[in-house]
Each structure stands twice: as structure tokens, then as C-alpha cells.
């Protein structure tokens, strides 16, 4: 028994060592991901619940690491945030998404996720303005999706930055709402144009009363703050019918389309635009 106990401890150490080494490697390789052309954006449609028409697309990062292959964003973005490489990656994503969207019909929005680290960086406003100037994208077509953590950290400077961006006509979206710990007064103080309910609540609401209550509460909150609500992760017609009935203005999820590359998105759009 003793023998196997020690064996288990050794396995644990070796595992830990492997995890640490793998992480260091991701950290190093992330620094080079932009210059090595390993990042891509995919675009997922967002539809209006009025007529199910596409109102815009959310840009989502993909990292094709060589030789490891696909690394999911949930794995590398937190690391990029810790090392600071999210600044460079985030700027690349913003520039690429806005360049892409500038070729789309004017009525389509482009939603880009931004990390709190980017918003807190000193020249974020200038970066966004530079990208808009370079791509010629109308500011009101750009939506920046920010998570609740932006309100919790250095909220005064983040608030000032988001307000400046909003004053320029850019739209600010509260992303993943319900998953963090923001207070209602924070929500009111920040210049949001829209609230996105996280997909975990949409996915669970049919089986779970609590998730259903969260969805209802967020829609109620949006109504009283006069903010449209987007439901994320809508996979079934039943979920769509439900969030429509509850009063969500927009929906996003596999039911309307998975994230796909710009090459797949554009031909369809050209037909609509033509
Ligand atoms: P998110 O902002 O909440 O993005 C929505 C996620 O839900 C995406 O995962 C999307 O592929 C997935 N999804 C969409 N519809 C459905 C559905 O119907 N069912 C299910 N099960 N999933 C659905 P993805 O692409 O893996 O991205 C994960 C997270 O990584 C994003 O969550 C976002 O927080 C972060 N992320 C992705 N791209 C960027 C980026 O450019 N910058 C930053 N800062 N974060 C990003
Ligand atoms: Ca998002
Ligand atoms: Ca998110
Ligand atoms: Ca989410």
C-alpha cells in the first residue's frame, strides 16, 4: 500500500510538472502567435427576435498553434491576460474584425470581445480610434463586449474609457451577464447599450428553475434600464420561443449558426447586399 501511495505522489508531481511546462510553453508561444500568423477570427451571427434577420456578427478568436493544433480561447485568453500579451492579441482582433466588417453591408454590426486589461491600458481609446480611422468603419457599427469584471477592478478609469468610447458613437455591451458579482448600481453607472445573458442560463433554463429566474430577472432589469437583451447560446426552437416570449431583443447560438470564417460569411452577405 505504501509503495502505491508513493507511486501516486510521483505521478502527481510529474503531472504538475507537465502542466507547468505546458503553460510556460503556451505563454511563450502566445507572444509569437500574432507575428507567426497563427490567430484567426470566426464570426457568429446575431439575429433580431422580431424577424430573425441577422443584425451582426460576434468575432471570436481561434488559435491554430503549430505543432499542437487548436487551442480553445477559454484556455489561452486567461493566460494572455496574465502575461499582458492580450493587449497585442486584442488589438489584432479588433483591427481584423473591423477590416472584415468594413466590407459588409452597412446595417451589420460587428461585436468584438475586449479584455479588462485592454480597457485599463493607457492608450486603448486611441487604439480603437486608430482602427476605426484606418478601416473607415462607422463607429456605431462597432460593439465592444466587456465582462462584469471590468466594473469591479479599477472601475473609475474603466468607466471613463468606456464613456469616451460611447461618446464617439461606439456601442458598449455587457457580456456574460449574471456570471459575475456586479451590483445593480454599477450596472447603472456604466454606459452600456445592451446586455448579453450568458449561455449557461439559456442552456439550463428548461431544467433548472434558478436559471429560468436569472433569465427573467435580467430581462426585467433590461426593461427597467431600457437596455435591449441578447440571449446567447440558443440551440433549440423551444429556447428561442421562450426567450422571444420573455422579451429578449436579439439571439445568438447554434440554432442560427456556429462561428465560421469570414470566407463562409461573406458570399451570403454579398448576395444580400447585391
Ligand atoms: P463569449 O464571449 O461568451 O462567446 C460565446 C461563446 O459561446 C463562444 O465560445 C461561442 O463559440 C460559444 N457558443 C455560441 N453559440 C453557442 C451555442 O449555441 N451553444 C454552445 N454550447 N456554445 C455556443 P468560444 O468561441 O469558445 O469563446 C469562448 C470565450 O473566449 C468567449 O466567450 C470570450 O469570453 C472569449 N473570447 C473569444 N474571442 C475573444 C477575443 O477576441 N477577445 C477576448 N478578450 N475574449 C475572447
Ligand atoms: Ca462575447
Ligand atoms: Ca465572455
Ligand atoms: Ca458567454
TrEMBL record:
Superkingdom of the organism of origin: Bacteria
The record places domain EAL at 23-273
Name of the protein described by the UniProt record: EAL domain-containing protein
